[in-house]
Every structure is written in C-alpha cells, then in structure tokens.
Specification:
The complex is a heterodimer of chains A (563) and B (282). Chain A is α+β, with helices and mostly antiparallel strands. In chain A, 32% of the residues lie in helices and 19% in strands. Chain A has 15 helices and 20 strands. The longest helix of chain A is centred in the middle third of the chain and has 21 residues. With 282 residues, chain B is an all-alpha fold. The chains are: A alpha+beta (563), B mainly alpha (282).
Amino acid sequence: MITRLEVDGVPALCAPADGPMHAGLVFRVGTADETVPVRGITRLIEHLVADVPGSTGPEHTYFHTRGTPTEIAAFLSGVCTALRNPPAERIAAARQRMTSVRDRDPLPMWRYGARSHGVASYPEWALSGLTDDQVRDWITRWFTRANAALWVAGDDLPEGLALDLPDGVRQPAPTAVTVLPATPAWFAGSDGTAAWDTVVRRDAGAAVFATVLERRLQHELRDRAGVAETARTEYEPRADGTARILALAEAAAGRSDGTLGGLVDVLAALRAGRIDADEVGTVVKHTSEGLRDAECRGARLPGQAFNLLAGRAVQTLDEALAEVRAVTAEDVAAVAAAGYDAGLLMTPGTGGADWAGYTAAPTMSEAVLDGRTHRGRGDRNLRLISGAQGISVVEGDVVGTVRYDACAAVLAWPDGARQLIGEDAVMARVEPTLYRDAEQVVHDVDQWIPARLRIDMPPRDRDRIPQPRPAAEIPEAEVDSRRPLITLLIAGMATLFVVAGGLGVLTMMLTQGPTEAGLFGGLGEYGLVASASILFGIFAGRIAVDAAAELRRQQADRIDRNP
Amino acid sequence: MLRAMLLDPSAAYPKVAVLRTALDAGDWPACRETLDNAEPVERTCLTAVAAETEGIAEFLRGVLSGDPSDGTAGALLGRHLAASTTTAFSAAERVLVDAAARSPLDPAIWTVRLRTARGLRLGPSEARRRYDRLAEIDANHVPGQSQYLRYLCGHDPAEAYEFARSAAAAAPPGSFSPVLIAEYHLDRYLARRDHFDDETVRAEVAEAAARSAGHPDFRHTHGWVRVTSTFAMAYALIGDQPAAAGYFEALGELDSAQPWDRLGDPATVIGRYRKRATGGEQ
C-alpha cells in the first residue's frame, strides 16, 4: 500500500517492502532536456553531488541508496546540500569519475535530429569545457524542490530526512518533434546490429506488445532461424503520455541479412494481427507476477514517483494488475499496427530496407543555400557556400546545409575547422585547408553563431587535419552520392549500444533476488516482467562481452576525439 | 519440318487453361477453387504460370484489398510483379512481406520470396532463412528448391553443389528433387563449356536421372515435363544422344521452355537438339 506524503515540499511516496530500506530522490531532468552544447551536464551534476552515482535517463535523474534509515537520511540530505552549494572544486574530480564511455543509441538522432530525445545520441563533447556557471544555472533550473519527487521503500520516512532544495518550477515533459518526413523509415546502422523503434501511446497494451515482440524475435531469429545471437526489447514510457519501444537484435557472424529479414517478417506478422491469445495470456501472467514481485521489493515506487512528476495518478498494485489483465490479443495487435506505421528501422550494415516497404530516412539536405562559393582546392567536386542564412557544403550530389537559425551546435577546433550541426542532425563541415579563401567562412561562422552553441574542441594532431589532394589523384566520378552526411557522426559509434535510460540499473538492483531460471531464464525474466510493468523503461540484460566493450570504447573514443 | 512442339504448360496440365480462363474472367472464386484443390507443388507451379498473364495486377490488388489475408492472391500478385528490375522486385517483395506475415505456411509465397531474394540481391543468410521456412512446410518442394539453387549458383557454386546433392539425396526415389543435380551441372556448363567432359559429372547426372525421371516410380504430376526436359537437355549437352532421345520420347510432343531458354529461343534450341538426338527422324 503506497502512502503519499511530503518532505520539505517534495512530494513523497512510501510503501513497506521486503529487505532493508531503500529510497530515491528523482528530478524531472534528463538527456532529452539537454542541448548538444551542454550534452552531459546532467550526468556531471549527478556525479558531482553524490559519491555513489545515481542514474541519468532521457527524462529523469535520480539518486538512490539502500541502508538504515539514518544512512538513507544522511545520503539524500547530503545530495540536497550539495545541490544547494555545488562544490565547484570537485567538478574536475567528478568529470574524472564519469569517464567511462557509454554506448550511444543512434535511433533517437535519426528520429528527432539534434534536439530533445535526439541529443542522447551525441557524444558528451562539451563535458570538459562546462563552466561553473553553466553547472549552477542547470541546477537552478532543474534540480529544484518543485521538480523533485521522493520514494521510500520502508515502513516510514527515515527520521531526520531533510530535503533542503532551492525553489523552482515543475518542468514539463520534453517536446519531441520528429524529423522523419515519412514512416516506416530506415537508416543504415553499423554492421551486425539490427534495431527498430517506435513511439506509441503509453498503456498496458503497449508494454505487453513489447514483451510479445521480444519473445517472437527470440523465437524466430535466435531459436528458429539461428540468424541472431540475442534479441531483446525495451519499453520506455515517457512523461508526455507516449512510450518508446525499442527492439535490438545482434546478428550471428555473417548473418546480418537474415537478421534484418527476420526482424522485418516478425514486425509484419505482428502488424497483420498474427497474435495468439495464449501468447498474450502468458505474457500477461508473467507481467502480473513481476508486478507483484516488484511491489514486494518496492520496485514499483520509482515509476510511481516518475508518475507524480508527470502529473499522472499514482497507480496501486491492484489497478496496475487490472490494467494488465484487461489486455487482449486485439489490443496488442492494435499497438503492433500503430507501432509499425511509426517505426524506424536500423539495418545491420550497408543494405537498405526499401524493398520491405520502409522509406529511407533523409541523410542530407535538400537545398543549397545562396551565398559566396568557395571552390575546393584541387577538387572540383567540392564547394563550400557561405551566406547570411547559413553554410552549405557540396560534394558531388551530396549536400550538407545548416541554417544559422536551425543550428544546434558548432564544434570549433583551434586550427580553424568548424563543424555545424543542424537541428535536423545534418552536418556541414568547414575545413579551411580544403577550400579557397576559407578563412573568410570561418570568420562568418564565428560571427553568426552565438557563443552558447559553440563547443571548443581540443587541438587536432597534424595528420588529422585534411589536406587537399593533388588533382591527379582524384579519379572522375569518385564521389559516392549515397554517402550520407548524417551518418558521419555515428559511423562506428554504435556497434552495440546500450540505452542506459530510465531506471534500468536500479530495477536490476532492486529485483535481483535468487536467480531461479524461470520460463525466460534468470535476469532476463526479471527484465522482461519489469519491462512490461508499465512503470519504467528498463534495460533487461547486459549484452556486452568484454572484448566487444573494449572495441566500442575505442570506437567511441575515436569518435569523441575526431567526430 | 519440325513437328509442332507444345511448349505451353497448358498442353501438359489442363488446370492451367482452367486457371487462365478464370483469371481472364476476373473470377477469383474460380481461381481459388483451382489453386486450393491443387497439390502443393502443383499449386506453386500453377501460380508461376498464371502470374505470367498480362494485366492481372489491378485485379489481384482488388482481391487483396477486399481480403488482405488471401495468401493465394498475395503469392500470385507477388510472382506477377517479380519481373526483372530491382524496382519490380521491391514492389513484389512488399506484397510478399505482408502475404508471408498473414500466410506463413504457404509454400508458394516462400518460393516467390526466394526469387525476390535473388532479384533484390539480399544476402545468403536471408535466402537461407527463407529456404528453411519453406523446407519446414515441405522438405521436397522442388519449385522452391530450384529457386534457392539458382540463388546459390549466383553466390557460391560450392554451396549450390552441396545443396543440390543433399536435397536430391533426401528425396524419395522417383521424385523430382534429383533434377537439382542436373540443374546445377547445367548452370556450371553455361559457365564452362567443358563441364560435361568430366566423367564424375556425367555419372552424377546419370545417377540423378535414375532416381528421378528414369525411375519406375516417377509420376507424371505437375512439373514432370520440366524435370524430364531438364534431363533431356543435360544428356543432349553431354552428347549422349540415345539417353537424350529416351527422355524426348518420354515427353512425346510436350516440352518445357525452361531450362532450354538459357541456350536461346527454346523452340529453336529444342528442335535442334531433338533432331540431333533422334537422328532427324522427327
């Protein structure tokens, strides 16, 4: 039974749970609230104000701990004190502690560009340059009393708990505006991983669909066809009343095409309504068991605290169970059909998915802006156009245009190179060495672009600065017109990626009981049932093996340094 | 003067004419009756033949919009659209993705999807996945096996050879599937004209023929003309005129344009080789 309370003006939820007391303080802020020029600031603050890191997801950042009431009160009160007086001298240390590179999920960028949820796909370029003032301003706006909620899994609030937070306002859900002109859409990802995501109405049917999809993918791709090593889905409810469903399949060696084909077929079968009532019944049963289990452990509380922040009703266990039990095969089919139409497919390699009825997501700009043209040095295919509206880079048929009034960020290198990132995620790169009189363009860009969009990058090694090629080296028609400007950013960045969002890590922590292998086996089952609990998005299992993780780290490092 | 060869499948299989008449009349229930009552291999072959009827796309789209779950219409439309351009294969595949989603146990659909996998240049793991789905339904579905073999021949001849051998070995005596061995060797012959000089190759063709068109249990069900014609062609190219003549005789006046069309205009080519095999008697 969840009790609603209040601590120092912060709404709180309290419910008894098995085991030692645990509690968390959540703020309605996450990567979707950031912009590319401050990407990483929320996570920096998370590391700055607590020794034990919390979690920063797309929409929520929380601090969580387990222990005696005294320890919990001390921890959470300490977080609030640190937020009131951020220890500036510890910023460097915090930055140090958070150096672990996280895999970025490229799909949000393709759906939303370089804004809102799309920002999470970008590297934390700005991290090293974030100032004291920026950190304070960010805290003032987001880490406030009005924008926080508390949960306590225990019989009562811990004695002596004080949440002395600055005043502020409750922040609305981030506004997600798609940049995809048509769906279902596809883009080419990195070799070996097929992925698909969609955005649908947030409800129990959508959560059950996500689990049905996972089971179907595991059956068809892994067990039946043997084309994929693993397949899983995530259900990520959002504060705006929608939910994102993500499916990921790691292809077995050399089986990328089969993985894509299998994924396409599974999605088509579900859209066609081939959903068995027994299958839905099984998922509903396991979801219900998971909900009861989560209730015992206090694992439903975080999601309910998120609900408080979103202005949604707190749901009792019985209400949640009733909602899940009411889900029929028809409901799941309706979600599948709506989800299919809004779908975004990441193909595992270079091939596309037009053949399967998916439209290619835009990879470059349609229009070249007016302005002064700077020809490439020794390369007639190359043109740089600088005008009052923005910059266009043209290489053969490939056009990258970033308008100054729709520019999300500019990367600036000491050697003069500038990379403009449009709100639509298209990039235009000004390399002074490659164009005639390009210094003038660098000057234009620096004049037009406000300081808040600028990210100063570390100096580049000499061999990283491109040099014009002698004309003789350039064969005719060398330009690959399919080379997309939008993918330059993510090339190699997402071999495998993990959405470290929502309450994933916490959920695993809270639900780690004896790992009896259930129908879906070990941790996977906990992930599965929790993901279907309509409460929070979760990451249902570690997919990284060490070698792959190291490879990704190297790739991500390379991208971070040399985007 | 050559005797009139009967290349059109309707000459061997009366249901072809029935189906064409129903299609021409826009009578879908009659089309379904013919196709639904056919055996699986016969149904897939009928689908392929009927799909060559001109101007049926609109009619079939109409049928599908009335009943999206009609897998038979999906297979027929998909096969009809799967012509020779990438755009056409894409258009076909979009119909077939939905058809396979709604009728996952229809071997005709998976057979056409093996054809589109080749036309769309999808990777080997996807072609294999499609073939496995077909084999789950019918392990000896020779029209689909032929499609998959053609895919493999274009990709990896060694794998094509393995597939032809294992599929032929798995089929019961007197069945169609050993023809895959002949198809494989004919494909190799077209790549290298001295392919049949190899004694082992000739022995493999002979063994396959003995287990198929030359076997007492070989039945004249739908597809038999093409299988017999394929062995006739293999022997004709090997230069074993008596053996070729035997199969031409078994065919009587019937013939199949495939696989002869790979040598040129089938009527001309068949006429020439028939004459050569039978010493100009016909």
